[in-house]
Amino acid sequence: MNREADRVSLSSSCIISKTITGPGSKGTGSLKSRVKHVSQDIIRSKWTVLDGDAQAKVEELFRSIELPVLANYSSKQRKIEAHVALGAITGTLCKRLPRMPFPPKAREIHFDYETLVRDNRNLQQSLATSLTSSASLVNDVEKQKLALLSERQEFEDLGSADRIVVG
To answer: In this predicted model, what pLDDT tens digit does every residue of 49-68 receive, in sequence order?
Structure first.
């Protein structure tokens, strides 16, 4: 049995990526999407349809996609063609939405684009702050290690000088 044929790819979870630009740099953090493969068996057994409020949010999201796409076209004829095509696609998706399975933890809030963008921005800022403070702490530890080595060497020199004077 071919398991790869029974899998669906999702881009729902994120991984943390740290980019370091050079020695001594603080680095920047960012959240990047990662693809997660979910088998059809899990989708059939554990996933459910959305409630009415969440479905309304998804339909609103589908419809809000039309405006930026239509703004890209300057020709009236192209705008009409794009509007008809997008209308057909969103209509089909909206009709299928009551039967579409979603992960068990999917809620209405997951389909509110502005909230998700704001939360993602806040997470990115928090991640950048944490990575910056972490890099600063690592630099402080390195400085303290160097100071400790210097003090140990000085202590050994004093101990050998003391043995020479006493001995």
So the answer is: 888 888 888 888 888 888 88
Backbone angles phi, psi at 15, to 5 degrees: -120, 155
pTM over 0.85? The answer is no
Count CB neighbours of 157 within 10 A: 10
CA 27 vs CA 24, 83, 94, 98, 134: distances in Å = 9, 44, 43, 45, 10
Helix (H) / strand (E) containing 11: strand 7-19
Q: Are 39 and 2 in contact (CB under 8 A)?
A: no
* Cβ-proximal residues to 99 (8 Å cutoff; 6+ apart), any chain: 49
Q: What is the DSSP string of 103-160?
A: -TT--GGGG-HHHHHHHHHHHHHHHHHHHHHHHHHHHHHHHHHHHHHHHHHHHHHHHH
Is residue 12 classed exposed, middle or buried when 0-12, 13-18 and 19+ CB atoms within 10 A define those classes? middle
Half-sphere exposure for 77 (CA within 13 Å, toward CB)? 0
pLDDT score for 21: 44
| DSSP conformation class of 49 | P
| Mean pLDDT of the residues in the chain | 79
Phi (first) and psi of residue 74, to 5 degrees: -95, -30
